[in-house]
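Hypothesis: this fold can be encoded by more than one sequence.
Test: take the structure tokens below, design a sequence, compare later.
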């Protein structure tokens, strides 16, 4: 009898424990092909908020992140000593996204608490995991700041605050531009709903980025048969030099 009562209590409380608001989202494309004339593309992230009950009090916000494949990096600091520039300190970054964009409905520090940022790694600084700091580095955080500054200057990192359109706390859309210098791999798209600085629901999608056509053939050739790739490169360079010499000879005549 006690077990039956507990089972009935759990069944009755299950709807109350379910998330009152959930994301229903989609992407304009889930695959990007890098070809010879590729100069970047734009991804549209759209969706709606599904509710099984009236919306709670407080404004709702939307955060969208697009994260490229992570790579291992070593950041070195150069100093001039005895008239020569040499590497003095270094910090090893265990995983740094090759591309990272954040789009929000408002200021990130207002719509997401520090605790939730640490948990979900939303801000660009949190998305970088720095480990193995060398003992010579007096200011390891400065190295991470330098990496972020370089990535922002290269347009590989973006913080687009207030660019997500949110209509009547129901429909939303965000446009994220992917640059031409993309790294091949899977790009993770996250959509998060926040209220009072806390994430109440999140959803993930994946966009595949890969080279196609001649670019993919040359990339595979360079990695799988580097000797043949080098010989072909030398042959093409020699052929191009001979062609240019022959053309100039004909023009002089």
């Amino acid at each position: 009898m006690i077990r039956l009562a507990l089972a009935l209590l759990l069944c009755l409380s299950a709807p109350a424990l379910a998330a009152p608001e959930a994301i229903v989202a989609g992407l304009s494309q889930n695959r990007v092909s890098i070809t010879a004339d590729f100069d970047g593309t734009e991804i549209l992230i759209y969706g709606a908020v599904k509710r099984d009950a009236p919306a709670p009090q407080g404004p709702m916000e939307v955060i969208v992140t697009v994260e490229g494949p992570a790579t291992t990096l070593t950041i070195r600091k150069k100093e001039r000593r005895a008239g020569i520039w040499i590497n003095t300190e270094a910090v090893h970054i265990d995983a740094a996204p090759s591309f990272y964009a954040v789009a929000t409905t408002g200021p990130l520090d207002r719509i997401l608490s520090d605790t939730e940022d640490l948990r979900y790694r939303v801000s660009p600084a949190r998305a970088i995991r720095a480990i193995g700091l060398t003992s010579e580095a007096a200011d390891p955080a400065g190295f991470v700041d330098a990496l972020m500054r370089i990535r922002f200057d290269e347009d590989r990192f973006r913080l687009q605050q207030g660019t997500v359109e949110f209509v009547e706390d129901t429909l939303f859309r965000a446009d994220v531009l992917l640059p031409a210098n993309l790294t091949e791999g899977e790009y993770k798209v996250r959509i998060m709903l926040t209220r009072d600085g806390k994430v109440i629901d999140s959803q993930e999608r994946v966009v595949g980025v890969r080279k196609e056509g001649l670019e993919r053939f040359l990339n595979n050739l360079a990695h799988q048969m580097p000797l043949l790739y080098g010989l072909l490169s030398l042959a093409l360079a020699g052929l191009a030099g001979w062609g240019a010499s022959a053309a100039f000879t004909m023009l002089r005549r």
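The first strand starts at residue 21 and ends at 27. The first helix runs from residue 2 to 17.
Hypothesis status: open.
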